[in-house]
UniProtKB/TrEMBL annotation:
Residues 878-998 form the CBM6 domain. The keyword ATP-binding does not apply. It comes from Streptomyces fructofermentans. Residues 10-19 have a biased composition (Low complexity). GO terms for biological process: arabinan catabolic process; xylan catabolic process. This is Exo-alpha-(1->6)-L-arabinopyranosidase.
Length: 1007
């Protein structure tokens, strides 16, 4: 079935079911289960004893119990742990685990990239970007893609060169709360439920669906609160309890609970002031998995912890790595292949008593548990050991790539231009992405590329007119008259100034927005980039970590241009070189010079891209203009987007083409929502796709000509302007009205939006056992898929509630005139939200709106649900209350209570405040007491508002350290009584951990 509901659980809460990190002897831990060893492990050890530790009971028995697939995983892990020396166990804690020849154990590596296909290992099937896969709203399809990717990982692994492995780092499940995030294409959705559903589907495909016999071992990225690239190792994501429990954790927990993930990767950022690498939630999450987790760090993140790193959270690497192990990290991804610093730091931590051997056993046990389940120690490599390289880019996988790319396309607007008519035989395809396919940082290597122009030409059975629509220019030194020239042969050559010489002095200028362009040499079709010594035209596409093919043409008052180098490394704090281009020697070779010495160039247009595109589309039956992004430039890892619009030259091209041919279809090919409201009004049809892999062109042709009826749906809100969004560093969706759940404006396109070539009618939504059902009828003339979406809204609550919240969805296929009853599961427990007054989930009594439709903004059928739930009682502040459990706030940050665990609240300046609504103070409050730390200050207790009646002030001394706390108190005035909204106003540089307000003793004779 298509679009089935993903695993949910009780709103994604993390419940600690026990931990494998105890203080017992070696071999008693590390069972791989994530729970304390009990009866199952005792039985397993008994089984081992029955087989005998020294050798097999019979000639056909495996030589060691850990190689016996008949035994439980826990028994095999414990047997293997018991045979390893401490040094050998420590050696397993680095990403590159060495072989242990005396036991016949081969080397193992964590971390094969498999986000939307196998990456970095050679040619492999490239599927649509993760955002595109989620846009299908089809978990069954996404699971098939995961299965195909898992098989290809196995196909590569059969060859087993260094650097290949079965532990895959995918999928990325950070919810896409801000479309400016540089890694937006890596995630699935701004909705945690949809994200969890897709992650579970893809992970199930990767694992093969049997947690005891793994096809591959997927690792979810990046835990936790990771949704900005700016200063990504030093910024702290403030996750107050409701945001943490209702938004961030639910994206991770479904796949973990379903056994569709075998671990998580800790993120670079801090969470509430504590580096995510030492977040104790890593170990808490382990308790949600049926088979335990193998948790890894992000690359070089351990080094950030120590005194020389960016975070400087600990004095030494030994302290940092010990803390990471205790927090739930098992494998350290750092120092590339050099495990020396990691193993040395762990050994030092053991010597100093920062770790015990049982801590190492626990981590090594989690690692070995996954290796056992992968079949590494089974005869023939286990269930998937025979999968070979023939599966890589197989015909079945190529067909699946085309299917996925077509199903992911989202029709944003259509006033009758699509599908293209059967009589449309003369079609022009223009635009900067018309005849190329770009790959992103985590894409695989394309085995072939079907571009939009090629796909449409194949569909029509002949060539199509076309143009990239970019200007071809020359750059002439205004002072010397010399031209910038590139190497003419296939390998390119250094750029230098010299006489004009045909195409050697000509460059195609691609505008990617934010003032950034790339220059492609007309002489050899290669892009110009910096190679740390000069500039060379030698790259097929912009690429690399620093993306050194970026430039800016800066116009001067006299009409000349300065040519500025804008590679990513120029934004790094260590970059001290100049960034302007100019001749640096007698041969005219171009290099980097200070702005004062920069050459001034005049630009001459050899060929106008807009004019060429217009000539190509004039008089044609239809014009398809393909615009969008270059994934290495318009936001990617380590670089957030600077704006959300199309590049100005691309917008101008669309308008020129539209004027020349009224039957213009715009294809936007990029990795995120785009602010195209003004442009969209001017064209009859807009189709959006992510960078969709090797079959992009065929898939687009399938959709444009109606062979596939589009049914992709947006998984993010498309805003009209950046002004609709708060700072990218604000993580509180509730307070700042982020995502479709809380956004009160009018979006360009709502969450869940997508059009079809047919139409659908919805009947009355009815409550049935286990949820709701609705009849959906295809009222058009074409077969098509509809994505039926169910949203809820709680009308009255003690707490601010989402305006709408996705609770279920189903993608269904309908022939013309056919009706289908669509069942959408919903349990009352799904209506729960996190009650900060009692730190638990609660379903409040009251009326809930049930809304079923085609998007969050297109509701077709409604019902109400009366729930006999709880009433949240008034807050009882006489009990010790954690300051983080506020209802509202201003001017505060969430900070680490200690380095090991806990969250406190820190004042960002005088006048910061916290509110605790609907507090029952009783007949009269007595004394305010608080636990504070830091530089000293005071806490005012006020009623009704931050400037309301002052009823008490507690003075806090300087404690000498933010981790040293003092107890302070103050008597409260008689007005502190009854049901009140209590405000705590913080002055000075203090941190507030917990507080309480005691009730005054009753006077004699007074009830």
């Amino acid at each position: 079935m298509r679009g089935t509901r993903g695993t949910r659980g009780a709103k994604g809460t993390i419940r600690t079911r026990g931990t494998s990190r105890g203080r017992g002897g070696s071999g008693a831990r590390g069972t791989g289960s994530g729970r304390r060893p009990g009866t199952a492990v005792v039985l397993a050890l008994a089984l081992i004893g029955g087989l005998g530790a020294a050798g097999p009971a019979g000639a056909d028995e495996p030589p060691y119990p850990f190689r016996d697939p008949r035994l439980p995983t826990a028994a095999r892990v414990n047997d293997l742990l018991s045979r390893l020396t401490l040094d050998e166990k420590v050696s397993l804690l680095h990403q590159w685990q060495p072989a242990i020849p005396r036991l016949g154990i081969r080397a193992f590596r964590t971390g094969t990239e498999a986000l939307h296909g196998v990456a970095w290992l050679g040619e492999a099937t490239v599927f649509p970007q993760a955002l595109g896969l989620a846009s299908t709203w089809d978990p069954a399809l996404v699971e098939r893609v995961g299965s195909a990717v898992g098989d290809e990982v196995r196909g590569f692994q059969r060859e087993r060169p260094a650097g290949w492995g079965l532990n895959v780092w995918a999928p990325v499940v950070n919810p896409l709360r801000d479309p400016r995030w540089g890694r937006n294409e890596e995630g699935y959705s701004e909705d945690p439920y949809l994200t969890g559903s897709m992650a579970t589907a893809y992970g199930t495909g990767l694992t093969g669906g049997d947690p005891d016999h793994l096809r591959t071992a997927p690792t979810l990225k990046h835990f936790l609160g990771n949704n900005n690239e700016v200063d990504r190792t030093t910024t702290s994501s403030d996750l107050r309890p409701r945001v943490l429990k209702e938004y961030e954790e639910p994206a991770f927990t479904p796949a973990v609970e379903a056994g569709a993930a075998t671990g998580v990767m800790s993120s670079y950022n801090l969470v509430n002031g504590r580096p995510a690498t030492v977040n104790p939630a890593l170990d808490e999450l382990r308790g949600r998995s049926p088979r335990g987790l193998l948790n890894v760090t992000d690359a070089y993140a351990p080094n950030n912890l120590a005194g020389t790193g960016s975070q400087k959270y600990y004095e030494t690497l030994a302290e940092g790595n010990a803390a990471a192990l205790k927090a739930g990290v098992d494998s350290f991804t750092t120092d590339d292949t050099n495990a020396g610093p990691t193993t040395a730091s762990v050994e030092t931590a053991l010597e100093k008593g920062l770790l015990e051997e049982s801590d190492v056993d626990a981590a090594a046990g989690h690692i070995l548990g996954v290796r056992v389940r992968l079949g590494e120690f089974d005869p023939g490599g286990g269930r998937y050991g025979s999968v070979d390289a023939s599966v890589v880019n197989s015909p079945a996988h190529r067909a699946l790539a085309r299917e996925a790319a077509a199903d992911a396309a989202v029709l944003l607007k259509n006033t009758g231009a699509l599908p293209l008519k059967a009589s449309a035989k003369d079609v022009a395809v223009v635009g900067p992405l018309a005849d190329t396919l770009y790959t992103d940082w985590y894409s695989g290597t394309l085995p072939y590329a079907v571009t939009p122009a090629e796909g449409i030409a194949a569909r029509l059975g002949g060539p199509v007119a076309g143009s990239e629509g970019v200007d071809r220019i020359t750059l002439r030194n205004a002072e010397s008259g010399a031209y910038v020239r590139a190497g003419a042969d296939a390998g390119g050559g250094p750029l230098a100034e010299g006489p004009a010489a045909g195409t050697a002095a000509e460059f195609d200028v691609f505008d990617w927005g934010s003032g950034i362009v790339t220059l492609r040499s007309a002489a050899n079709g290669k892009y110009v980039g910096y190679d740390w010594s000069g500039f060379v035209n030698d790259q097929a596409q912009p690429n690399g970590w620093f993306v050194q093919q970026q430039f800016a043409l800066e116009e001067q008052a006299d009409g000349t241009l300065l040519l500025r180098y804008a590679g990513y490394e120029t934004r790094e704090p260590w970059w001290s070189n100049p960034v302007y281009l100019g001749p640096t020697g007698p041969d005219g070779r171009l290099g980097l010079v200070p702005e004062a010495d920069a050459a001034r160039y005049t630009r001459d247009v050899v060929r106008s891209g807009a004019e060429e595109a217009v000539a190509a589309v004039e008089g044609r039956d239809a014009a398809v203009v393909v615009v969008g992004s270059m994934p290495a430039i318009n936001g990617r890892e380590n670089d957030d987007r600077e704006d959300m619009g199309l590049a100005p030259s691309q917008e101008a091209l669309v308008r020129a083409v539209r004027r020349a041919n009224p039957n213009t279809v715009v294809v936007v090919e990029n990795s995120y929502p785009t602010t195209i409201g003004a442009l969209q009004k001017e064209v009859p049809a807009v189709l959006w796709t992510t960078h969709a892999g090797q079959e992009t062109g065929n898939a687009l042709a399938d959709v444009l000509f109606g062979d596939v009826n589009p049914a992709g749906r947006l998984t993010q809100t498309w805003y009209r302007s950046e002004s609709d969004l708060p700072s990218i560093l604000e993580y509180d969706n509730i307070k700042y009205d982020r995502t479709y759940q809380y956004f009160r404006g009018e979006p360009l396109h709502p969450f869940g939006h997508g059009l079809s070539y047919t139409s659908f009618r919805y009947g009355k939504v009815k409550r049935v056992d286990g949820g709701y059902e609705v009849d959906v009828t295809n009222t058009g003339t074409r077969a098509g898929d509809e994505v039926v979406q169910l949203y809820t809204h709680q009308r009255v609550s003690r707490d601010k509630q989402p305006l709408r919240q996705l609770e279920a969805f189903r993608r269904v296929s309908l022939e013309p005139g056919r009706t289908r009853t669509v069942r959408l599961p919903l349990a009352e427990e799904d209506l729960a939200h996190w009650d900060v007054t009692r730190s638990r989930w609660v379903v409040e009594g009251g009326t809930y709106d049930i809304a079923v439709g085609a998007s969050a903004g297109d509701i077709r059928s409604r019902a109400t649900l009366a729930v006999r739930g709880e009433t949240i009682p008034p807050r009882d502040l006489s009990r010790v209350t954690r300051a983080e459990n506020f209802d509202d706030y201003e001017g505060v940050r969430l900070v680490d209570e200690s380095r090991a665990r806990g969250t406190a609240v820190g004042a960002s300046g005088d006048g910061a405040w916290l509110s605790f609504a609907d507090t029952g103070l009783g007949a009269r409050a007595g004394t305010f007491r608080a636990r504070v730390s830091g530089g000293g200050g005071k806490v005012e207790v006020r009623l009704g508002s931050p400037t309301g009646r002052l009823v008490g002030t507690a003075t806090a001394p300087a404690t000498g350290s933010v981790y040293t706390y003092a107890e302070v108190g103050a008597p409260l005035a008689s007005a502190a009584k009854g049901r009140q909204d209590v405000y705590l106003v913080l002055e000075g540089g203090i941190r507030l951990s917990t507080f309480s307000i005691s009730r005054a003793a009753a006077r004699p004779g007074v009830g």
